[in-house]
């Protein structure tokens, strides 16, 4: 494939890698969020215990939700890479749109289409920021001195 990123795992393995990373990120972030929420909603003197209970009960659920999103996104990105035979930002944008639409499909066509548009736009913003940042921080070639006049 043109422009293939050789630093990443091949497609079947990247799905598992991304699902595990998404689970970890969701479990840590969701656990932290629900610890704070549980501690704030607990009576004085029971805040730590309330935070721990909320974290233990909701953290893994949030992690599982993130893992489902991450594995679906990576699966669709691999499918689009294989179908299009190129690796560019359009694969990520399309994968975000398909994932968003399928995860909201139970809510009907309207909810699925709104979520698909939102997923595509969100991934377009992420890809756009990545492109701008890589261009802004890319190594500039050294300026060449003018040739000496004789």
* Number of beta strands: 0
Question: Which regions contain 5 or more consecutive residues with pLDDT less than 50?
Answer: none
Average per-residue pLDDT, rounded, comes to 89
Quaternary state of the chains: single chain
Radius of gyration: 22 Å
Helix proportion range: over 70%
Structural class: mainly alpha
**Secondary structure tally, helices:** 4
Euclidean distance between termini CA atoms: 50 Å
Q: Give the strand content.
A: under 5%
What is the helix/strand order?
HHHH
**Backbone shape:** extended
How would you describe this protein?
By secondary structure, the protein is mostly helical. Helix content is 74%, strand content 0%. The protein is built from four helices and no strands. Helix 3 packs antiparallel against helix 4.
List the helices and strands and how they pair.
Layout: H1 11-40, H2 47-84, H3 89-103, H4 109-136
Helix pairs in contact: 1-2, 2-3, 3-4
Keywords, please?
74% helix; mainly alpha; 150 residues; extended
Short characterization:
The protein is mainly alpha-helical. The protein contains 4 helices and no strands. Helix 1 (11-40) packs antiparallel against helix 2 and helix 2 crosses helix 3.
